[in-house]
Amino acid sequence: MAAIYVFAGIMHFIKPKMYMRIMPRYLPNHKLLVLLSGIAEIALGIALCIPVLKTSAIYGIIAMLVVFLLVHFYMLSGEKASAGIPKWILILRIPLQFVLMYWAWSYL
User: Fold this and answer.
1) Please, which pLDDT band fits residue 80 given cuts at 50, 70 and 90?
2) Of the candidates 52, 68, 88, the residue with the CA atom closest to the CA atom of residue 5
3) Is the whole model's pTM more than 0.85, yes or no?
4) How far apart are CA 94 and CA 72, in angstroms?
5) What does the alpha-carbon distance between residue 1 and residue 104 come to, in Å, rounded to a whole number?
6) DSSP secondary-structure letter at 78?
7) What's the 3-state SS for the chain?
8) Is 22 strand, coil or helix?
9) Share in percent of the chain as helix, strand, coil (round to 5)
């Protein structure tokens, strides 16, 4: 799990435009938010590997995934917001968020 979050966080720096395209329009400063979310994913992924930080990291990951639901619901709001991703995939991503939350919770 740690490797997945570190990799996902690094991708925010390698392909920031991809993430900025899917940011809800009502959120300010998309570039900063993409970079901060990348930092959060990397930090939480690393923290999973540090026993004293593991529990906090798990709760942080769950909170982050809840916040990311905003993006998933926003992407369902219209053609432009979907970034060309088929609607059925966007719909499947929502329950996937809850699976990821449960996966994190199972490490407690």
Assistant:
1) confident
2) 68
3) yes
4) 7
5) 8
6) -
7) CHHHHHHHHHHHHHCHHHHHHCCCCCCCCHHHHHHHHHHHHHHHHHHCCCCCCHHHHHHHHHHHHHHHHHHHHHHCCCCCCCCCCCHHHHHHHHHHHHHHHHHHHCCC
8) coil
9) 70, 0, 30
CB 24 within 8 A of CB 76: no
Percent of the chain scoring above 70 in pLDDT: 100
Residue type, 31: K
pLDDT above 90 for 106: yes
Beta-carbon contacts of 108 under 8 Å, excluding residues fewer than 6 positions away, are: 55, 58
- Give pLDDT tens digits for 94-104: 999 999 999 99
